[in-house]
């Protein structure tokens, strides 16, 4: 997300870093910042006001006389980005007693029904709640069935009625009664959408709002539609007084105009962002973390929060105990990799780590998921004894493991060597304080499994040696296939 904007801003700031700044080159540079924002589909007035605020601070005498003025300008831009998208939303306001009613609204195609399921899953997992979904979209033929499927996938009940015998208000009222009877404490209303904002849609939503008095009205908008999404948000807010916005498809939004404009235009905070198609890909929106990611500074706080949600705490404690006892095995390592994969796409995870995002961008062919599958394939090709005691793997065993996992014997060697170094380092870290652990992690990243640059170099070396056996096999298969086609053609 935000690749285009991040790249342009990085280019502008690199110019700021060259020597002393003057008022002229500050203004020239910030003109480029405004252009980058407009190309990212940020609202014109928002971009103009943003640059004006940054300029007002950046041309001050304190900045011009600072030792590293370029860094200070980056800091100012970061703070203004936070102000633009913030303040940080306080999260869902849930009642301690009784049923919290959340009304979800949005246009067709925004991902509203799927987001209802994502929100229900998050309420169960992160808040320990018992939600119920209500299929109040009686306009779209497949909406009710879609919500049933989503509810089944996340394991929450769904209240539905025959659309020919009811209306949206009655469905919501009956859904509230059903939630009370079932002992649910959160009711999520999946209301109807339209292809555009119209009086009929708004009238229907106002009726539900008046009859049920939902605790929060949340608007779901597709971030990839840019300023159209922002204008829709403004229209909905004018009619309903929204409590929050949920941006969907942010993982596919390379520009970021909606995320950077919606709060400034509507005054409504962004509560959550959808970052993928899976039902667990819904994250709380943090303006500070998003601003840092836009500027290539990572988002460690967001990464830690995500890890705390996704990691199995009991399994992590077992791994820690094994490390301290010196019994960390390749099987444990594979288990830890599977935990890491729960965080999402590895390139996105890398971009949350300061300095790692640019390494990911340096090699567009880098595929961390493929590399992790390759390592897991090597480990799976070992016997239980070999995973527990890798020192027993001799040349013949290495060749067997390589053949079983479709890699070179040198790849098996590298895994064993890196694992030996990492296991020893991690065992030392188990008894360290936080500061010493950070130093050890840096050493590990300089030359072990955590170094993406080492993986790039490994690929370069492999390309120098020529294609691996899997590539040769594929080429031979393709050649035989072409020969068969040619023989058939000649017979005709």
Structural commentary:
With 492 residues, the chain is an alpha/beta fold. The protein folds into 3 domains: 83 residues, SRP54, nucleotide-binding domain (Four Helix Bundle (Hemerythrin (Met), subunit A), Up-down Bundle); 198 residues, P-loop containing nucleotide triphosphate hydrolases (Rossmann fold); 156 residues, Orthogonal Bundle (434 Repressor (Amino-terminal Domain)). Helices cover 62% and strands 8% of the residues. An 8-stranded mixed β-sheet has the order 3-2-4-1-5-6-7-8, sandwiched between helices. The relative contact order is 0.08.
Output the radius of gyration: 27 Å
CATH fold label of the largest domain: Rossmann fold
Percent in helix? 55-70%
Count of β-strands: 8
Give the full name of the CATH homologous superfamily of the largest domain.
P-loop containing nucleotide triphosphate hydrolases
User: How many domain regions?
Assistant: 3
Label the CATH architecture of the largest domain.
3-Layer(aba) Sandwich
Largest sheet entry: 8 strands, mixed
The total count of helices amounts to 24
Uncertain stretches of 5 or more adjacent residues: 444-460
CATH C-level class of the largest domain: Alpha Beta
Mean pLDDT reading: 77
Taken from the alpha-carbon principal axes, the silhouette is globular
Which structural class matches the secondary elements?
alpha/beta
CA-CA gap between termini: 53 Å
What is the strand content?
5-15%
| Biggest sheet: strand arrangement | 3-2-4-1-5-6-7-8
């Amino acid at each position: 997300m935000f690749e285009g904007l991040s790249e342009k801003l990085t280019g502008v700031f690199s110019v700021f870093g060259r020597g002393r700044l003057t008022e002229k080159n500050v203004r020239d540079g910030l003109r480029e910042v405004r252009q980058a924002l407009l190309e990212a589909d940020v609202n014109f007035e928002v971009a103009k006001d943003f640059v004006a605020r940054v300029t007002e601070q950046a041309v001050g005498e304190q900045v011009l006389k600072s030792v590293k003025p370029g860094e200070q300008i980056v800091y100012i831009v970061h703070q203004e980005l936070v102000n633009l998208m913030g303040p940080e939303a306080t999260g869902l306001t849930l009642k301690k007693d009784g049923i919290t009613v959340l009304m979800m609204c949005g246009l067709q195609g925004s991902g509203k029904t799927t987001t209802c399921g994502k929100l229900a899953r998050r309420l169960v997992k992160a808040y320990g709640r018992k939600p119920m979904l209500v299929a109040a979209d009686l306009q779209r033929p497949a909406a009710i069935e879609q919500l049933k499927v989503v509810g089944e996938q996340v394991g929450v009940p769904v209240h539905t009625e025959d659309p020919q015998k009811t209306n949206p208000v009655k469905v919501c009222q009956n859904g509230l009664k059903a939630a009370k009877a079932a002992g649910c404490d959160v009711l999520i209303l999946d209301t109807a959408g339209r292809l555009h904002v119209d009086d009929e849609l708004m009238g229907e939503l106002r009726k539900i709002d008046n009859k049920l008095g939902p605790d929060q009205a949340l608007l779901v908008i597709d971030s990839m539609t840019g300023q159209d999404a922002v204008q829709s948000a403004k229209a909905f807010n004018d009619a309903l007084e929204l409590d929050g916005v949920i941006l969907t498809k942010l993982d596919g939004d390379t520009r970021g105009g909606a995320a950077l404009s919606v709060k400034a235009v509507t005054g409504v905070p962004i509560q959550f962002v959808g970052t993928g198609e899976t039902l667990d890909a819904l994250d709380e929106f943090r303006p500070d973390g998003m601003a840092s990611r836009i500027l290539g500074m990572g988002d460690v706080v967001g990464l830690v929060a995500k890890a705390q949600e996704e990691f199995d705490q009991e399994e992590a404690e077992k791994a820690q105990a094994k490390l301290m006892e010196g019994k960390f095995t390749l099987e444990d390592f594979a288990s830890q990799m599977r935990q890491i994969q729960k965080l999402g796409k590895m390139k996105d995870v890398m971009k949350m780590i300061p300095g790692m995002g640019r390494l990911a961008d340096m090699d567009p062919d880098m595929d961390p998921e493929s590399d992790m599958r390759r390592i897991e394939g090597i480990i799976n090709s070992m016997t239980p004894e070999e995973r527990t005691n890798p020192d027993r793997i001799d040349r013949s065993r290495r060749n067997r493991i390589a053949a079983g996992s479709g890699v070179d014997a040198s790849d098996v060697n590298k895994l064993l060597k890196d694992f030996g170094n990492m296991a020893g380092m991690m065992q030392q870290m188990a008894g360290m304080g936080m500061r010493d652990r950070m130093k050890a992690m840096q050493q590990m990243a300089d030359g072990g499994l955590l170094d993406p640059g080492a993986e790039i170099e490994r690929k370069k070396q492999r390309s120098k040696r020529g294609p691996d056996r899997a590539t040769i096999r594929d080429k031979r298969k393709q050649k035989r296939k072409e020969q068969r086609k040619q023989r058939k053609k000649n017979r005709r």
